[in-house]
Amino acid sequence: MKKFFYLLAAVFALTACNTGSDYEWEGGSYYLTEGVFIVQEGNFGNVNGSIGYLTYNYIDINQWTMNPDIYFSANGTSLKGTINDAAICGNKIYIVGTDEKTIFVADKTSMVEVDRIKLELEGNTFKPRHIVVSNNELFVSTFEKKVFVINSANNTITKTYDCGSYSEGLAIADGYLYVANSNYASGENSSISKINLATGTSEEIKTPEMKNVVDVQTAMGRIFYLDSGTYDPVPPHTQKDYGIYELKGKNSVLVLAATEMCISGNVILGINNPHSYPSTGTPEFFAYNISSGRKNMLTDGKDISHLEPNKISLDPVSGLVYITCLSKNAGIPQYQDYGFCAVYGLNADSFANTLTGNYLKTFQCGVGPTYVIPNIKYVQK
What we know:
33 strands; 55% strand; four-stranded antiparallel β-sheet; Methylamine Dehydrogenase, Chain H; five-stranded antiparallel β-sheet; 6% helix; mainly beta
């Protein structure tokens, strides 16, 4: 793993145009990822949620360091409850504490807490679920049919929008906010809310294919959503009706069989690992080119075959892919044990128009790792 900087530079040179990164090189000045934050849910009622931090070393990946609870290290107290998401806006990181009904705000360099935001409306306090950033505003979904908008300059709530039931992931494109409404995984009445940000009007879109919509992302003017489907009530409780769908008007079109997704530019990175208890299948990790419709294997996953893959994330600056995993014993995920974060470099074949992953290293982290949030800074020359 020596001379990691040169490997990383080569990977980025190959992938920058393919992944459609928002961080374009401007000649002289540049963007640099200093490390990544790892959202760690914890475990229901037993283990507090936390934020891990993996610090980069561009010379040698073996010199990377993991702090499994950087918030506790900086503040001397835990985040408590379930930590469901996080987002960076300016020099602050906003951490979504669902059980605490709180958005924790910390300085992203020191991780010292600077504020707490309660999502309150008409005497009620709402449970936040997911968060996205647009034009220095934060949009937060909740379980209670509301999206809250927060001004990052003073951390105040400026407006709310109506949406569907038990909202999860959300995305913004072309003046609209799209919200995934899971309806608490009931298997029916799941939907996507389409909210006009200029007028505030909301349209709830339902299709027969929607069973448990948990995420929505946009790419190239198109809307994709992840549906976790339903679970067979009879053991081994096999997952079904799941996948990545494209929303075309008011119709759902199945694109890929997948249980997790991450979209950057023209590429969908995904995991297909349908649930059963205990796990019986072999997870699939893939890259999908949206323009060509071509899918290829990202990695065979042999380096993490002893683990249970959870989420997949991409750092658009370094071109590194992160697969967060749970411990596994006899095919059963261990939700109360510490988790792991596996790191892959991307190799691009421009002729074949494919992306493959080069396994680099796996790091132990906190309990219940999910999303990886790159800590990116702009270096002015």
